[in-house]
Amino acid sequence: MRIAQEEIFGPVLSIIEVKSFEEAIEVLNGTAYGLSSSIYTNDVARAFRAMRDIEAGITYVNGPTIGAEVHLPFGGVKDTGNGHREAGTTVYDIFSEWKSIYVDYSGKLQKAQIDNAE
Amino acid sequence: MADRFKNFIDGKWVEAKSGKTFDNRNPANRNDLIGLFPASGQQDVDDAVRSAKHAFAKWRLVPAPKRGEMLYRVGELLRQHKEEIARIMTREMGKILKETRGDVQEGIDTAFYTAGEGRRLFGETTASELPDKFAMSVRAPVGVCALITPWNFPIAIPTWKLFPALLCGNTAVLKPAEDTPHTAVKLLEILEEAGIPVGVVNLVHGRGEEAGAALARHSDVKLVSFTGSAAVGREIASACGENLKRVSLELGGKNAQIVMEDADLNLALEGALWGAFGTTGQRCTATSRVVIEEAVADRFVEMLVERARKLRVGNGLEPGIDVKKCIAMCRSVNKKARGFSPAPRSMKPASGLTVTSIGQRSSIR
Questions:
Q1: Is A19 a member of any domain?
Q2: Domain B7-250 classified CATH 3.40.50.620?
Q3: Is A102 a domain residue?
Q4: Residues carrying CATH 3.40.605.10, chain B
Q5: Residue B92 falls in the annotated catalytic set
Q6: For B279, which DSSP code?
Q7: In chain A, positions 48-87, which contact chain B (CB-CB < 8 Å)?
Q8: Is A112 a member of any domain?
Q9: DSSP characters for B308-322?
Q10: Is A118 among the domain residues?
Q11: To pair with B210 at 20 to 30 A between CA atoms, which of B17, B59, B80, B174?
């Protein structure tokens, strides 16, 4: 059903009943998106299984799906994005290029993978 | 006479080259005209990118700790102007004041966090396999970054893109959503006051299809960072892919909250109310589904409906309001909903389900 699949971006909440923890995870993962998620439980094993099995960039345990802080990565999996994470220190991988630098002070030509071959 | 606001290009406040403007109105009171903003096109984008490219030559050489210190000053000014910015934001996009203050706070947090990173921004050193040879990696800036941002977090999202971009030594052109241009003007005024050099940050207002598309396709833009709909994200990714341009996308969500029968139901209820109806459900991380075990479903729905009925919807500037009016509805009424519309325009209730009131029951699976 579309209301359970498409982003509405408004104050609309669907309630979906399930028979078990496993089915809950399956339903949660059953959309094209994977940004935020949450589980309310007092069973520590279920909490850890959810943290492992939920397909999302962000998972809250005993908290709502909103409330991100600026010093942890923010973003999602699947159709939520293209693999980058804003915020945290991961944001610097978006906005910088890695440059590798070698300084040879031997005064002669040294060949990597060749000069020190066994 | 309505106030006229401008683009910020190469350190100057300028109109669109075409002279065209668009209206910005209060979503809670359509008679409240906030002002006229430049409807920018290709020429304006060209000017802004040229300015950013020119400034990049010097900005990339400013030591990162110095760039961080400037961002610290930006954080101090954001803190000083927090209430003023929150009120500007509520007026133009409707979120209640408590939430727009939180939005500005996120910008303040990002400024101070990023400022500290100026003295880290670590690379790596490692041993070379050869004698008398040193090996290391360092972070280098990318170049001119296009930042295309949505209306739902008019300070938090532009700043969490912009501040790290600047810290790394990039320069930027910001194209904010056409629904929240006034907040962006205020942000640029603060950057100017903090001493960010001329051309390092440029602001271009306008529609996504015009200013946004021109910016994403510009050959001197080396990176596009976009937050918005999945449909527009795919278009931007295609345009960037053709030119092997770096692109960072933060798109849709269909976020779910699981409630197990062993959960504290009152705690889960508070979470669902805030997650689904806080910020009128217009956060990318908003709770859109509750997935609940049957044993507690009826009780939870009863509790939820009772509380949801008590939420007060209205003008975010007035005290006692819990939920602002939905900006998408206002956009539709105003015939502004176009390519970047946050809500699927074709959305109709699926057959067998009518979304008419709080607590409507239906077989959904």
A1: yes
A2: no
A3: no
A4: 7-250
A5: no
A6: G
A7: 50, 56, 58, 62-71, 74-76, 79-82, 84, 86-87
A8: no
A9: HHTPPEE-TTSTT--
A10: no
A11: B59
> Per the CB < 8 Å rule, is B277 touching A13?
yes
Contact present, B121 and B168 (Cβ < 8 Å): yes
Q: Which residue of B has its CA nearest to A29?
A: B256
Contacts of A25 in chain B (CB under 8 A): 258
Describe the crossing of helices B82-93 and B181-193 by its angle, rounded to 10 degrees.
Answer: 160
User: A83: domain range?
Assistant: 2-95
Mean pLDDT confidence for A79-90: 96
* Architecture category of domain B255-312 in CATH: 3-Layer(aba) Sandwich (3.40)
Do residues A55 and A78 lie in contact, with contact meaning Cβ atoms separated by under 8 Å? yes
Q: Which of A 2-31 lie inside 8 A of B, CB atoms?
A: 2-21, 24-25, 27-28, 31
pLDDT tens, B134-170? 999 999 999 999 999 999 999 999 999 999 999 999 9
What is the mean pLDDT of the segment spanning B267-281? Answer: 93
Give pTM, 2 decimals: 0.91
- Is residue B175 over pLDDT 90? yes
The b-or-e profile of B67-84 (16+ CB within 10 A means b, else e) is bbbbbbbbbbbbeebbee
Asked if B257 lies within 8 A of A103 by C-beta distance, the reply is no
Kindly state whether A114 is in contact with chain B, defined as any CB-CB distance less than 8 angstroms: no
Determine what percent of chain A falls in helix, strand and coil, rounding each to the nearest 5: 25, 25, 50
Do B155 and B103 form a contact (C-beta atoms < 8 A)? yes
Read off the CATH number of the domain in which A15 is found.
3.40.309.10
CATH 3.40.309.10 boundaries in chain B = 255-312
Count of structural domains within chain A:
1
For residue B166, give the chain A residue with the closest CA. Answer: A95
Catalytic residue among B69, B235, B250, B326: B250
Decide if B164 and A102 are in contact by the 8 Å CB cutoff.
no
Amino acid in position A68: A
Q: What is the pLDDT of residues B101-141, one digit of tens each?
A: 999 999 999 999 999 999 999 999 999 999 999 999 999 99
B137 CB neighbours in chain A (<8 A) are 98-101
Task: ipTM value, please give it.
Answer: 0.93
